[in-house]
Specification:
82% helix; 19 helices; 0% strand; 454 residues; globular
Length: 454
């Protein structure tokens, strides 16, 4: 464990050291998500692009399972290390590993077994259903590997190894990007080739994390002998993991609802939104990386009862979030035209896509503030507040806005529903954290007793 970054390093430098590899890792995730859509787009068939976009909710569900286990485990491990409980951290890690494998196998089986129902649920039309099915036949078996990579990408950061966490993401993405043009374009496999590349990339990333934990990690374990359900591990992981996962589940659900609304306007609009969301993710995912990067620092400071460092990390992170968000928004806004055209050579898709990108970027400069507060609440074990945020942004705020704005403004309303929900969510996050901060160092409320086990 890099103890210096947690205790002695100047706050600004510690945030940069922890967050930059995580941000790069999120950039890698972004490239990973964009790669399939971009290479499929080179075929020139909007229906195949739409099919890849329609299947995104399935991938988000895998990510949800990974975040449930990984973010919950990270919160426990970082607090445990701050409280000088390395044995407990190993038990949490072993629990996360074994549960990841079981969850992945179960999810893969369910998606393969209920494929026709799944296709109807995600909003596939008669024209896109065959392509979506072909993609999911190969993506579904990747569930154990997606979940395992997501989990240990988080857990490795909890012991201060942000660079190593980034490496696992990088390996999976490089493999995927190398295979995409070969399978999609050279071997003419289309969407199936994109799915196979995704599967193999996730296998490669998972193997890296397994080898890292077995050979290099100080406080993480895969050993069955360290596996425990008691001592607050199961409840501790679920308390923070469920809100984090619920955010992904609601993202998946809202994406399904969004695609169903867009399908009423046509497959071109579905394809255009799929491309626009990939570009808009540049501004969002990198700021998510900043929030995730500071979580171990905040959790450790809280576990170590270092109130001054805790508050300093939070203040500097908010400044960094706004600065990063502003720069990314300007870049994506200026480059929206060439970026959309880079995905697919279709005048209709490009026209709608540029409009959609600019709409999604309205909340870009300040969305990072939401992720800083969200990760801070997760880091200290604030389960109730995390849950409220998770069910609000993509659920209780976004879905009603989507229904109302679609009815009142039509297609324009659909596109602006997400940035509108972001503004409401940021305000809610600030209120929740302000209230929690007044009580933050009361152990009875923050749940720190969970890591004080025998």
């Amino acid at each position: 464990m890099d103890k210096n970054i947690f205790e002695d390093m100047p706050v600004g430098r510690a945030i940069v050291k922890s967050a930059v590899p995580t941000i790069i890792g999120m950039l890698v995730v972004l490239i990973y998500n964009i790669a399939d859509t971009w290479f499929v787009g080179q075929i020139g068939d909007p229906l195949q692009v739409a099919a890849v976009s329609l299947t995104m909710p399935v991938f988000l569900l895998f990510m949800a399972a990974g975040n449930l286990i990984g973010i919950g485990g990270t919160s426990l491990i970082s607090r445990a290390l701050g409280a000088k409980r390395p044995g407990y951290a190993r038990s949490v890690s072993s629990f996360c590993f074994h549960v990841s494998l079981v969850a992945g196998i179960v999810m893969a089986g369910l998606f393969l077994g209920f494929m026709p129902l799944l296709l109807r649920f995600i909003g596939a039309s008669e024209e896109t259903a065959a392509f979506a099915r072909e993609y999911l036949l190969y993506v579904s078996p990747s569930a154990p590997f997606v979940i395992l990579s997501t989990v240990f990408g988080n857990l490795v950061r909890s012991e201060g190894k942000a660079r190593e966490a980034m490496n696992g993401m990088l390996i999976g993405t490089i493999v995927n990007i190398i295979l995409d043009p070969v399978l999609i374009l050279l071997l003419h496999m289309g969407v199936a080739g994109a799915a196979v590349a995704t599967l193999i990339g996730n296998v490669a990333g998972s193997l890296y994390y397994v080898l890292y934990v077995l050979k290099k990690s100080e406080h993480l374990s895969l050993a069955a002998r360290d596996f425990r359900l008691g001592g607050g591990i199961l409840t501790g992981v679920l308390a923070i993991g469920v809100p984090a996962a619920l955010n992904n589940v609601l993202m998946s659900a809202s994406n399904i609802v969004l695609n169903n609304f867009l399908a009423a306007y046509g497959d071109i609009q579905v394809a255009a939104m799929g491309v626009a969301m990939k570009i808009g993710m540049i501004a969002v995912l990198l700021q998510i990386g900043l929030g995730a990067g500071i979580q171990p620092l905040i959790g450790y400071s809280f576990g170590a009862e270092n109130h001054a460092r805790f508050n300093a990390i939070l203040r500097v992170s908010l400044v960094y979030a706004f600065s990063l968000g502003t720069v990314l928004t300007v870049i994506c806004w200026i480059g929206s035209g060439p970026a959309v055209r880079g995905f697919i050579d279709s005048a209709e898709v490009v026209s709608y896509g540029v409009e959609f990108v600019k709409a999604l970027l309205v909340s870009g400069p300040i969305i990072g503030i939401l992720f800083v507060f969200m990760n801070a609440l997760q880091a200290v074990g604030a389960a109730r507040e995390s849950l409220m945020l998770s069910i609000s942004r993509q659920g209780f705020i976004f879905l009603p806005l989507l229904l109302i704005l679609n009815r009142t403004l039509g297609l324009t309303g659909i596109v602006y529903a997400q940035p509108a929900a972001d503004f409401f969510s940021i305000f809610l996050a600030a209120l929740l954290f302000a209230g929690k901060n007044r009580r933050l160092w009361n152990r009875e409320e923050t749940g720190m007793k969970e890591i004080r086990v025998s």
